[in-house]
Amino acid sequence: MMNSKNSAESAKGLNEIEPVKIILADDDKDDQELFKDALDAADIPSDVTAVDNGQQLLDRLKDDAEPNPDMVFIDVNMPVKGGRQALNEIRSDEKLKDIPAVMLSTSGHPQDIEDALSHGADLYIQKPNSFTGFVLLLKKVFSLHWAKTLTNPLKDFFFLSENNISKKD
């Protein structure tokens, strides 16, 4: 027999998914808006906080008044503190090291990808050339996240780009 609390929770509806709490670190305001619009278009319930550089990301993550996000997206190239340095500091911090970190870059160079993997990124996304490509990439990222694949990245799924997304589905 279900108690009233459980039935109330199940009556709330299976369609209501708790929004994913995301911090996006990207110095380009247009890219921040594109990211948010693509999440909306992908029907991914989310609560996005955008910051402009790696230092602001770390300040936000270390703020005890704020809960840790479910995931961070980090642009590789930013002023003040770049994405690689921010990732290194996140992975060396006992309280932050388990937060899934997705690196974003226009580069698809193998050395950049290998560098992100070796420094503890969970996923590396080459920024797409189209809005549709961004929507498809975010859908893939969150299907991996919800399947818990991001907590132990597989090399096959580590690098996503608009060109290889259809090959992996």
TrEMBL record:
<dbReference type="InterPro" id="IPR052893">
    <property type="entry name" value="TCS_response_regulator"/>
</dbReference>
<dbReference type="InterPro" id="IPR011006">
    <property type="entry name" value="CheY-like_superfamily"/>
</dbReference>
<dbReference type="InterPro" id="IPR001789">
    <property type="entry name" value="Sig_transdc_resp-reg_receiver"/>
</dbReference>
<feature type="domain" description="Response regulatory">
    <location>
        <begin position="21"/>
        <end position="142"/>
    </location>
</feature>
<protein>
    <submittedName>
        <fullName>Response regulator</fullName>
    </submittedName>
</protein>
<feature type="modified residue" description="4-aspartylphosphate">
    <location>
        <position position="75"/>
    </location>
</feature>
<dbReference type="Pfam" id="PF00072">
    <property type="entry name" value="Response_reg"/>
</dbReference>
<keyword id="KW-0597">Phosphoprotein</keyword>
